[in-house]
């Protein structure tokens, strides 16, 4: 994982944990529809405060939440089926064929994608699933829209340009060549936030 990303978000770990919305049920339904065979062990790479790990724990007997910033893991709730691993995704190592599912929730673009893809392909059992996904663009409606657009325009020049180049997850997985079948998911998250929380959510973006 890029060094900035590995330690750059821990200062706002509590904000991540409380303000970033959970992923929608349709996303997890999509994953469920593609899971075949046992649901013993899943891995969440770049887990942050383990929001997505909790959803995995509802589906798998054991989950490894792999996160390079300990402050993020410290903000995660305890769960008896989730093991926290304070390590970069690229350095993580699991036995070949021992993993049923690997996800990367709004984190894959920060990683060395070729390294991670090769590792994941080795960890997964036959029929296992690799599912990297991310939040789409933020859209704000109502009377707050003009204010949001103004501030977004001010912020845009400072966005990390690496994200755009690496946010096409399917391209990275095709380049790896280790996955037999690729399918894409698209969904929306609708949330209503008070102004301070909306501003705080934007501060968690890159």
How many independent structural domains? 1
For the termini, the CA-CA separation is 15 Å
Order of helices and strands: HHHEHEHEEHEHHHH
Strand order of the largest sheet: 3-2-1-4-5
Helix content: 25-40%
Label the CATH architecture: 3-Layer(aba) Sandwich
- The CATH homologous superfamily corresponds to Vaccinia Virus protein VP39
Number of helices: 10
Shape: globular
Question: Describe it for me?
Answer:
It is a single chain. Helices cover 38% and strands 16% of the residues. By secondary structure, it is of the alpha/beta class. Strand 2 (62-67), helix 5 and strand 3 form a beta-alpha-beta unit. The radius of gyration is 17 Å and the shape is globular.
Outline of the structure:
This protein has 206 residues and is α/β, with parallel strands linked by helices. It contains 10 helices and 5 strands, in the order H-H-H-E-H-E-H-E-E-H-E-H-H-H-H.
